[in-house]
Sequence to fold (178 residues):
Amino acid sequence: MSVLRFRAGLLWPALLLLLQGCAPAYYSPREPRLPPPVVEQGTQPPVTQPAQVPPASVITPEPLPAQRPQSPAVVALLDTAERQANSGDLESAAASLERAIGIDGRNPVLWYHLATVRLAQGNAKEAEQLARKSTSLAPGNSVQQARNWELIARARQAQDDIRGAAAAEQRARDLAGR
Fold:
């Protein structure tokens, strides 16, 4: 009987590791690939246009260095918020992000995305506060901090704080090493 308990005690950690390996991984959406341009013989190659920059209100998840693994629920809520924001339903996107923050309140990426939604809704003061919160949760992550300061600069511009916006832009450049 004690041998069975001993083996069952060893079985649980192995079972948990096996189940953890079955959890779905998050892969960011791929950019659509366009076929190479066709150049007919005797013609000039086509002039390529610079890529269009998406509006600031669009949530674009970017992989960040030293990013910790996220729970599947948080990833699903972030994906949902991205779809909602991109379709213009900013109120639902904010609600999805707030639910994700309720699950993982120490995740600076979630706070950043909620700040972008608030800025798109016209609430620049709250957007600045949320971006500052994201910065405080991202010590040592200069990429995330630079993104936050860029957002703070846009929020300050929306509040007609030109000097504050310039200072925030400089801070973002310093963090990005530009």
